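Can anyone check this?
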Amino acid sequence: MPKKPTWLRYDPDEDISRHAAADDECCYEMEAKYGWTLKRIEKLQGDTLRADCVFEGKTEFPQPFHEQEDDDDA
């Protein structure tokens, strides 16, 4: 099987998604705000983004209101 690209933040084999965050607390905030299930937090080496939040399943941030498709135009 080919190696997954490093930019791919969803792993279908493990059914997990990753989102980098400033700290651990941001992971808990994402879990509460978007209703995602936080599986674990992995430490990152960066100065700005120090936590990699690992969530169950495929998670995506919602589109901003002005970018959502308008059902009336269909």
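Reply from J.R.: I decoded it. The first helix runs from residue 24 to 34.
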